[in-house]
Amino acid sequence: MAKKTKKTVRREWTVADIKELKAHSKARTPVVKVAKMTKRTEGALRQKAIVLGIGLGHQR
Fold first, then answer.
1. Which residues are CB-neighbours of 18 under 8 A, at least 6 positions away?
2. Which one, of 16, 18, 19, lies nearest residue 48 by Cα?
3. Under a CB-based contact definition with an 8 Å cutoff, are residues 55 and 49 in contact?
């Protein structure tokens, strides 16, 4: 029997989503926390941050 894979759900980035991402960027919120709050993957958040030209996460 073949394994069932999860269906990929793609959600568009709204203006509110982008504002929230920028706010978390400014506050240096860890990416893991942002991912849980926004229900998006870390990779999706990092890719959007690169496109927007903003930093994401905290600096060590």
1. 48, 52
2. 18
3. yes
Q: How far is CA 18 from CA 5, 6, 7, 23, in A?
A: 29, 26, 24, 9
- Are 22 and 15 a contacting pair, CB within 8 Å? no
Q: Of 52, 24, 54, whose CA–CA distance to 38 is shortest?
A: 24
pTM exceeds 0.90, yes or no: no
The pair of structure tokens assigned to 44 is 């999706």
Q: Encode pLDDT of 1-31 as tens digits.
A: 778 888 887 899 999 999 999 999 999 999 9
Question: Cα(41)–Cα(24) distance, rounded to whole angstroms?
Answer: 15
CA pair distance 52, 60, nearest whole angstrom: 22
